[in-house]
Design a protein that fits this description.
single chain; about 325 residues; alpha+beta; 8 helices; about 25% helix; globular
Amino acid sequence: MSTRTPSHLNAALRLALVGIRRRGERGRPRASVPSRKIAVEHQALLLPSSRLQRYLAATRGADLWRDSPLLPPTISAIWETALVLELLAHDGLPLPKRGLVHLGGELVVVRPLRREDRVRCRVELDGLEGHSRGLVLQLRCRSWSAAGQLAQENRTSLLIRGAEAPLGTPRSGTRSANPERAEAGEAADAAWRDVASWDLPASAGLTYARASGDFNPIHLWPWSARLLGFPRPILHGHCALAMVAHEMMRATGRDTRRLQARFRAPLELPARVRLQTRAGNASGAAPLRLVDATGASKPFLEGEWVGADRSAC
């Protein structure tokens, strides 16, 4: 039984070996929509304290969680991402030869995880969708506490760039789109107010990779990003979400209960960004967006955030 977070490196090596094996297969048929639920599960996952500290430093949250017995909810991305790599090695799924791009998702906290929890996590393929640039994986990611209680139920949309959609795959946009339409946000541009702004150095992607274990080449160096079609390294989507969650917590004094986001444009590094929000709706969800501090028109991220008192999570 594992007592540490699953290894991104081991999962990546397994994926590479699968790729080598598949290249040796001739006449491999085109993949079809899986007839069974594809899932990967690990139990007794324990996050070392040193890794937690690196993660908090990389995501601007060290001051918020330094003395807390709880784990920040966004840290579930560490083990979820590793399990996604394992899931991609299954037959019937295309290999991410041109890289994976995070399109969006939703984080839902049912109850907080504690630092000493040995977490059980399950990642399963919830659906496939065709996309103009490849194939979108809709993933359901759940984590349970040491007591066996459901702690988080998250959803993630990932684009496998250049992959051919299996036969029978519906063609549509990501289901994790922000319910607040972009045009509505643009029409009420004056209603947005700044929550925070920060500078992201060119090394921000590498710093997060060292903390999380997610060494996707599009995030690391200019040369590795260019090999995969990006002019500069782009920030990990999960890193951006964690920074947003931490800034909302800092601004409101409340914990994240739900965070939904859609990535509208790659956040190329280095960058100076502003987090903006506006008045929430009747359900208590506050629309938010992450924009270029220089005034570029398209937001990097759009979404909404719901906070809760710690005792209410």
